[in-house]
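Subject: Sanity check before I submit

Could someone independently write out the structure tokens for this chain? I want to compare against mine line by line before I put it in a report. The sequence has 244 residues.
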Amino acid sequence: MGAKSDTKTPREAAHVAIIMDGNGRWATNRGWPRLVGHRKGAERVKQIVRAAPEIGIQWLTIYAFSTENWKRSTEEVLGLMSIFARYIEREADRLAADGVRMRFIGDRSKLDAKLQRLMTGIEARTANLTRLNLTVAINYGGRDEITRTIRTLAAEAAAGRIDPAQISDALISQHLDTATIPDPDLVIRTSGETRTSNFLPWQAAYAEYEFTPTLWPDFTIDELVAILARFGHRDRRFGGVVSA
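---
Independent answer below. Compare away.
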């Protein structure tokens, strides 16, 4: 018998989630207003979305605006909301043509009415597309999401529609914003920060993490491919032990 091969088939990261950090710093480093960096970051999103299906990504989730981002200046917040609306308006045809399903997670109630309409419209328009599932987290915070879910389940229990003893991990997952979305395999954060910033704390419990010093506007498809290659050789044990 021949010797047993130690070669393992590389794992694929079907669902990649990205904390797109460093837009403002990228602009400030060049002496430009922070919104210039956010616009450049939106251009980078377009490039990554177009490339994602070609490099094996089926689900892409991006962190666009957190529940904590309202603390930023009014000018920056309004500018970001304008960028979000413009992205949807300008990219709708291309996303549909490329087979990209777009959906949003987070609390929409605080968003501008026009932006909410655009979000609902593109979700409906792309609902049956399957080449890439693009999820945008806007006014999203993991703790806020879990709190809203607990309130919903508490109300259901108080009304007698569910037995509190039957509340499980699976039931909680079914009531999160991401109920129809698989958990991420890989979470990437750009800009050199090494914190998770309240992004998908429930869903990413067993995700692999990669932190890169690259600011988001400089993040390239080549770097994403390199990160995916490294992910492919990681052992994901989910609390178990390494297989022999």
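---
OP: Matches mine. For the report I'm noting this point. The longest helix spans residues 74-97.
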